[in-house]
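fyi for ur records
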Amino acid sequence: MSAVSHQTIKLAKGKHSSPSSGACVMELASMLAGEPFTDHPTAVSPAIAGFLRAYNDSVDDVRRQDLYAYAAKVVGTRTTPEIEFARSKRLQRFAHDLGRARGWTRFVLAGRLPVASLHEPIDPESAGARAAKSIHKHTNQTHAAVLALVDELVAMGGSCEQIAEAAPAISAVSEVAEPTAVGADSP
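which gave:
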């Protein structure tokens, strides 16, 4: 049996003890960043990591594989507290907008936690997790919105040095990872 690498691993739900047992999107990002295998890589923005960890665990197996390329995109996104705060606010807005689209002014997340007000400060990792958990039903439309949101969060800032260090692995992932087409009738 050949060794598992960032090129052969399949994304799976949950936290894993090693790459041989699978990886979530953040564990793959830790591999790409050259860090120890963890779902909390230091090279990734806490807001983005919180969002992608929760989304990885809630989305179906087919759509989860689209996150493969995003593991590479998010390496090097950890940055200043100001940018993390801006990302947190954007994630809060995303969750708020999803709630409004469902016709609710306030809604309850898993564990009966109320959505934070847009004016309340919230730590970046929690903002990410809450935003992902605010997705009521996974559809092609919400999946596309999630991927666009991650692109937007990445564009808010990042360290060029961290990205350059991970460039060889990121390049390999970006070349092979294309979003999966899910049937139009798929939820």
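DSSP finds nine helices and no strands in the chain. thats all i got for now
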